């Protein structure tokens, strides 16, 4: 029997390393933004020039929603100037492109407790994610790890209701009448579970309200040929396997928002009606337990 070899990597301080640099980190993230653990992101820009001064390290976007991440990288410990710069760039992008949801992301080698306390004071008003990165070396090989130490506060229902209200015709143009009818079919599943729900047509999604109050345990985004469905529930191996073995397409699970992202067509809704009903029921139950 072969012996399992244990490797003991050396923790490296990037800020003091003669060869590694912030540019090195930036290029690694740009090549594969998913390593940050924020979901399946795409690179929109690098070293993005800001109106007054400075450059934003990275601009990332969730490929399945209108969410953008303004990312700043800091070697060493977090400091006040880094916090201010990150929020300033986030605010610039938010004002220039109000059609997107924006999240400020701070990446540093050492996210101090003092920093976390300061960010916590206004995290309810400004969506901020803090990620601690660590570099390790084994011989001539290096690798990075990223650990989210501070997530944005989940204020989905309150925030979403402040978004611009649209109507059914808006989504029939953004998607198609056929894909909006797919939403109708899935809404029928919800109505079978409980009465009092209605569809709310917002600018970035079609949500739910019960007796006039937001209850977005399921969110729909009609496209030209499919509908993206977001189901609020805990991630389990059983649920993941059920989706993967169905005609539905599992896009991903977002641990920050606690949602499964699934793509459906008219055929998959017809073929896997029972599974969709089960998922919607679980999602609704999870939402009630959180409330």
Description:
The protein has 291 residues and is an alpha+beta fold. It folds into 2 domains: 10-153, Trna Endonuclease, Chain: A, domain 1 (3-Layer(aba) Sandwich); 158-290, Aspartate Aminotransferase, domain 1, CATH 3.90.1150. The protein is 34% helix and 33% strand. The chain is built from 9 helices and 14 strands. The protein has helices at 22-31, 80-96, 113-122, 156-160, 168-174, 177-193, 237-244, 266-271, 273-290, and strands spanning 10-12, 41-49, 55-62, 67-77, 101-110, 128-138, 141-150, 197-201, 206-210, 213-214, 218-222, 227-232, 249-254, 259-264. Strands 1, 2, 3, 4, 5, 6 and 7 form a 7-stranded mixed sheet that branches. Residues 154-162 have low confidence and may be disordered.
- Got a strand count? 14
* Basic shape: globular
Structural class: alpha+beta
Figure out the total of helices.
9
Based on the structure given, which CATH architecture of the largest domain is correct? 3-Layer(aba) Sandwich
Head-to-tail CA distance between termini: 53 Å
Could you state the order of secondary-structure elements as H and E? EHEEEHEHEEHHHEEEEEHEEHH
Largest sheet: 7 strands, mixed
Number of domains: 2
Radius of gyration (CA) equals 21 Å
Average pLDDT rating: 84
**What is the CATH C-level name of the largest domain?**
Alpha Beta
Helix content: 25-40%
> Which regions have little confidence, pLDDT < 50, spanning 5+ residues?
154-162
What is the CATH topology classification name of the largest domain? Trna Endonuclease, Chain: A, domain 1
Strand % is: 25-35%
């Amino acid at each position: 029997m072969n012996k399992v070899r244990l490797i003991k990597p050396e923790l490296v301080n990037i800020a003091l390393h003669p060869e590694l640099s912030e540019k090195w980190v930036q290029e690694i993230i740009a090549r594969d933004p998913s390593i940050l653990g924020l979901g399946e992101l795409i690179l929109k820009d690098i070293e993005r020039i800001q109106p007054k001064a400075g450059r934003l390290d990275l601009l990332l976007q969730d490929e399945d929603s209108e969410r953008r991440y303004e990312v700043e990288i800091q070697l060493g410990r977090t400091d006040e100037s880094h916090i201010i710069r990150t929020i300033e760039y986030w605010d610039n992008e938010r004002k220039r492109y109000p059609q997107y949801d924006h999240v400020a992301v701070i990446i540093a080698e050492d996210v101090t407790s003092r920093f976390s306390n300061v960010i916590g004071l206004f995290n309810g008003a400004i969506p901020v994610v803090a990620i601690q990165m660590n570099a390790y070396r084994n011989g001539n090989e290096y690798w990075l790890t990223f650990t989210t130490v501070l997530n944005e506060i989940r204020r989905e229902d309150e925030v979403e209701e402040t978004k611009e209200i649209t109507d059914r015709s808006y989504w029939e143009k953004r998607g198609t009448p056929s894909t909006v009818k797919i939403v109708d079919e899935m809404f029928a599943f919800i109505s079978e579970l409980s009465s009092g729900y209605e569809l709310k047509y917002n600018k970035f999604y079609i949500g739910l309200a019960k007796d006039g109050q937001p209850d977005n345990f399921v969110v729909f985004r009609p496209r030209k040929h499919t509908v993206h469905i977001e189901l609020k529930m805990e991630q389990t191996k059983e649920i993941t396997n059920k989706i993967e073995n169905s005609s539905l397409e599992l896009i991903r699970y977002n641990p920050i928002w606690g949602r499964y992202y699934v793509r459906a067509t008219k055929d998959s809704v017809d073929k896997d009606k029972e599974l969709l009903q089960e998922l919607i029921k679980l999602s609704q139950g999870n939402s009630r337990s959180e409330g």
